[in-house]
Amino acid sequence: MRSVNKYNELVIKYGNSVNFLTIYIREAHASDSEWPDTRTYSIKNHRTLTDRLEAAAGLQEFGVAGRLMVDSMDDLSLLHYGALPERLCVIGTNGVVLYLGEMGPWGYSLNDLEHCLENLIE
User: Fold this and answer.
1) 70 with 53: CB under 8 angstroms?
2) How far does the chain reach from its first CA to its final CA, in angstroms?
3) Which pTM value belongs to this model?
4) Measuring CA to CA, which residue among 65, 53, 47 is closest to residue 5?
5) What's the gap between Cα 3 and its chain centre?
6) Rounded Cα gap, residues 12 and 4, in angstroms
7) What's the rounded Cα separation, in Å, for the pair 83 and 69?
8) What is the DSSP letter of 32?
9) Cβ 95 vs Cβ 50: under 8 Å
């Protein structure tokens, strides 16, 4: 979650030129899954949309800047963008994907996103 601060800085820096949107998807490391228990939080697998909305509210309370939306229980955003556990992308006003970062956590690069935004805004 330390990347939240850097993400929020980008929202502040580029927010007048770019609309930032976070889509909360399926929980990648649910506490009721077989993932090793190294989490500092406890979110169970979402069984209903209400579960997912409640989990997203926790993310919003954590302080993620910009708009926050929630993926459908059919995981349409996750599947369309290959976003499990996370991924950054820039979509142009015409709906064309201008930047699609590597899948996180290792490919999640806010520096690459910022470089892309700098080039687009110039």
Assistant:
1) yes
2) 30
3) 0.83
4) 65
5) 11
6) 12
7) 14
8) T
9) no
The per-residue pLDDT for range 35-66, each reduced to its tens digit, is 555 555 678 788 899 999 998 998 888 889 99
Task: Give 47-110 as a 3 state SS string.
Answer: CCHHHHHHHHHHHHHHCCCCEEEECCCCCHHHHHHCCCCCCCEEECCCCCEEEECCCCCCCCCH
Question: Regarding beta strands 67-70 and 21-24, do their DSSP bridges make them parallel or antiparallel, or are they unpaired?
Answer: parallel
Contact 1, 85 (CB under 8 A): no
Q: What's the one-letter identity of residue 5?
A: N
Cα dihedral value 33, 79, 93, 107, nearest 10: 60
